[in-house]
Amino acid sequence: MRILRPRKLTELRLHSWSGHFQAQNQTPDILSIVMLVTQSSFKAAALIQRWYRRYMARLEMRRHCTWSIFQSIEYAGQQDQVKLHNFFSYLVDHFTPSSHNEKDFLTRMFTEQRSPQGSEMENCGDCESIEVPDSYTGPRLSFPLLPDHATALVEAFRQKQRLHARYVLNLLHEARKHLVQLPNINRVSTCYSEEITVCGDLHGQLDDLIFIFYKNGLPSPERAYVFNGDFVDRGKDSVEILMILFAFMLVYPKEFHLNRGNHEDHMVNLRYGFTKEVMHKYKIHGKKILKLLQDVFCWLPLATLVDEKVLILHGGVSDRTDLELLAKLDRHKIVSTMRYKTRKNKKQAEEKGKANQMGSAERPSPWFLPQSRSLPSSPLRPSTHKAPRAGRSSSVPCGVPLDPKELSRRVRRSVDLELERCRQQAGFPAIKEKEEHSTSESDVDSDAEEQPEPTPEEWRQVVDILWSDPMAQEGCRANTVRGGGCYFGPNVTERLLQKYNLQLLIRSHECKPEGYEFCHGRKVLTIFSASNYYEVGSNRGAYVKLGPDLTPHIMQFQANKATHTLTMRQRISRVEESALRALREKLFAHSSDILAEFKKRDKDETGLITLSDWAAAVESVLHLGLPWRMLRPQLVSSLTDSKLAYKSWLENLAKEKLSQQNIQSSLLETLYRNRSNLETIFRIIDSDHSGSISLDEFRHTWKLFSSHMNIDITDDCICDLARSIDFNKDGHIDINEFLEAFRLVEQSCSGGDVSDCPQVTASSNSVHTKASSVPVTQGASEAMPSSLLECLPYSP
Description:
By secondary structure, the protein is of the alpha/beta class. Helices cover 49% and strands 9% of the residues. It has 28 helices and 20 strands. The strands form 6 sheets. It has a 6-stranded mixed sheet with strand order 1-5-6-10-12-11.
């Protein structure tokens, strides 16, 4: 390290050294002076280096704590999502509909038709009736797509233009037709292109996608891409990202590949923003877009295999992961990984499916069928057999037995696709979807009814590869932090790689500070491509490039220009402030429970507790696993004799959140705690995605809750309740009216005894579901509308 000192300081030091030599009656020589200068410089450099290392260590500690806060709160939200849907699933599975309307409502609430069939598919694909006004200045698409169309789409979205609903539906429809033909596990090869670029989660951040294309180049026959799931949710441009990805997939079907992530799931989209984004951008045709998207998501491939050596999937693996089973299952049956269908007729459907399989066990699939669900098992088994290399994505029949109707349907589909391809090559106009689906309605209906449900093992296999995370310890255990999937150790990875003769596993699913992370002896690589995921400056994005030698080359980036002008300390301070603000909101949302824990530890009722008790009480309520004692200086400002006056501390938290309107603290706490869950519940009840709850939807939902909670309430009372929530009397309940109803009920019941609240029932103080025990919300514990709050999962 070179140290520059001012001239005066140097003169003073030389003067002091001269005095040193005179005091010892020595004649100074040049060598002695140089040695003293060198020793002094080394000491100064060592001091500066020690100070710098301590400074960087403190910054790293702050960054680590900040990261832990963001990640813990994110995973707690995912736990809430799983618990909420487990609760609704329990209600649906144990509620017997009394009419056809109620049965239809339950079907639409969770298990919308798995694929648009017959005339319904006709409606989804018939986009020509949607008029594009002359005033529309956005991009226009025509099919088959050309490279210029996809490039123009990127540029239009970069300039904040919006694609018309007609072209969105057209693009989704064409994407579905292509995805149906793909195997569950795509096989790609580096011998046909210079390199293959693998990108991780994008989560609706269009700037990151555009930056990747800018730095790495647009997709082309020489530049293949694999996008590893989680294209949507959280960010504001999820629709635009999907349109770009699907467009390039259609232009370069052998060079551009997409894997399904855990957020390509209509149930997850209800909570994390994609459903809301679609309905906001396409108010008229949003429902049709969402329905088609649900089906498109189900057809996304589950994994990609590069040169039969590198496996790319979204989440991870488990000790029971079976790639051969994943290659053969019907991925389209997995509508959502949030819930496995357990209706009463499930066993009958399974038995019927087994009977059909046994009856056709000796009927192999013809070679000409589109192999949309199979992958040759040889690349995944330890074998010397080499698969054909006719293209970057290929599949061969696997001999899975089919029942006669399914066989007939696939044959018709294969012939139609081949005829359509030949017509397009000959220059004839494309056949409309009506002609393509000209089969009789009875055949289609029977096919839809007899389509078997996924087995529990198939469902678990898909959940594991979409939700799992690696861990440093050996073994495999349930992923209780996320609420789904598992944690898999190095031995699980090693066993899977050896079994299928693989050398590397590339996954995404986790945000990493540097955008990537190796683990398990560099045999597992995590890639995350959404930079600034939690806050500007919180993390880098990354993508990985694989050449013929399959050596991963990591490329990091920051899409936000503002981060380049900030120092490391400024970035950490900015991110830390955002994380602490989110943590204070979490503390405020659970202040009542925290106060109860403080009182348990304050046995003498002094109003003071030690810092150790403070940390233990907060962790016992939030279960975030954070270093609370290390965070104490940022969360607790004043102490009395090394003890905390906890009531005043909680009051200060409330003052930060109270708005200018004089809203009661306990009421605001309830809304902070449950708002995300309430919005999710609203979108679940709003099964047709209209943006409002009809009186029929409200009535059916309340019959579901009252049946579960043993509340005796008539249809007239439910209708009166719905009308009382419908403040503007338009016959529908929008999200603001829905939240306002909970605010008013909580406010009216928090001021007095529970018995003063209307519609009091003699239900117990807690609601026990199959998934978990749900505590009662304070204040309005037994009021009729607030009983829905009681059903909300505890939010740790």
